[in-house]
Amino acid sequence: MPLNMRREVFVTCAVTGSGATQDRSPHVPRSPREIAGSAIDAAKAGAAIVHCHVRDPETGAPSRDPALYRELTERIRDSEIDVVLNLTTGMGGDLVFGPPDAPLPLTAGTDMAPAAERVAPIASCLPEICTLDCGTMNFAEADYVMTNTPGMLRAMASAITALGVTPEIECFDTGHLWLARRLAEEGVLTSPALVQLCMGVPWGAPDDLSTFLAMAQAVPPDWTFSAFSLGRHQMPYVAASVLAGGHVRVGLEDNLHLDRGVLATNAQLVERAVGIVEALGARIMGPAEVRAALGLTKRAPVAA
Fold this sequence. Notes:
35% of the residues lie in helices and 20% in strands. The chain has helices at residues 32-45, 66-78, 115-125, 150-162, 174-186, 209-218, 234-243, 266-279, 287-294; strands spanning 8-9, 11-14, 49-52, 54-55, 62-63, 84-87, 93-96, 111-112, 129-133, 137-138, 144-146, 166-171, 194-198, 224-228, 247-250, 257-259, 262-263, 283-284. The model has no long low-confidence stretch (mean pLDDT 95).
């Protein structure tokens, strides 16, 4: 594969995620106020896009409460800092089976919601972007399956597109990208599409460079892609993605450390990513440039 370095790059900051990281670092934000504050700090550090989940403000457990998303959105929109808002639709597709000798009934942690419920915060908040996890996979834990059937994805993608929101297609393996291309061929997804290549998430695509380059090459040439990996591989993937022609994602959803033994803030991770991108000779894009490049529209939330 020839070197195809991207010369103008946007940084996405994945601010908090839904993983069990809330007690592993004091910098993982929980409440809408904390998540919005961390997102705004990341934007000040150079992130053009902030990707946001919400959590229970008391426990830090993942949530899909529309009221929390609404508060988060309004806090970010009311700030003086411009940033492209990217909300998740990943919650509501969780199956947790019992042990191998008794897989049913499903156990605690199972959270399956209809398409309309998963998209409800998007319809209310109207972010420029929302994620769409384009496939089903075994996901780290022994008996947990991240579930996104083709039927569910068609329903969610149609609803998101009808709202005028741009889906960011989350591809955790090669088959997810294959399905995304099929949905675009069917007209369910608008092409050219926006793709996030999610590398190194057990048990999706491993984050070795041969797999990553195969994923990057499978993205249609007129589509826009970004990529990330987890933990200590987060910053190497900043360079890898830019060199392969993509944009970058960093943040506490994917990595808690700035250096070995040093816990990071979102702003610090963005600052380091910006330094890597600029050291490669590329320029960091601002939010207005990203909206123009991707055809995004910034809108106010639907009136309550």
